[in-house]
Amino acid sequence: MVSHSKTGGTKAMTEAVVAGAAHPDIDGVEVVLVAALEATADDVMAADGYLLGTP
Hints:
The protein is mainly α. It has two helices and two strands. It has one domain. It is flat.
């Protein structure tokens, strides 16, 4: 997940997604968190899925 949160709303969504993906009933999911200003094209291209959120 590439994420940036200015007011905290996107941070809350990010935390909820990470908690859901880490649930013990879900196997085979790895979530990698990268700050938006630190993300590279390689980070994006390496992902198997995307979640987009906007304020």
